[in-house]
Amino acid sequence: MGKLKFHIDDTCVKCGACAVDCPVQCITQGETRFNIGKGCIGCGDCYSICPVGAVKMSKREPDKE
After folding, report:
1. Distance between terminal CA atoms of the chain?
2. What is the tens place of the pLDDT at every residue in 27-49?
3. Spatial contact of 45 and 4, defined as CB atoms under 8 Å apart
4. Model-level pTM?
5. What are phi and psi of 48, to 5 degrees?
6. Which residues 6+ apart lie within 8 Å of 10 measured at CB?
7. Torsion angle (degrees, nearest 10) of CA 63, 30, 46, 6
8. Fewer CB within 10 A of the end CB, N or C, for the chain?
9. What structural domains and CATH numbers belong to the chain?
10. Domain 4Fe-4S ferredoxin-type: where (predicted)?
11. Region 20-30: what's the mean pLDDT?
């Protein structure tokens, strides 16, 4: 899994580019925006393709054992 995690904020215009580009198909359409699911591998494709910058990234917390 990648070292970054991604989420989509309220500036999402629901164009669907992120969902189409996701290599693991973990982005789904919600009522007001698209959502990134737990299957995200942290590749950043959605971040790169979003035309409005709605995909935000942050550091992934280490897994707790």
Report:
1. 16
2. 999 999 999 999 999 999 999 99
3. no
4. 0.82
5. -70, -35
6. 32, 33, 54
7. -30
8. C
9. 4-59 (3.30.70.20)
10. 2-28, 30-60
11. 97
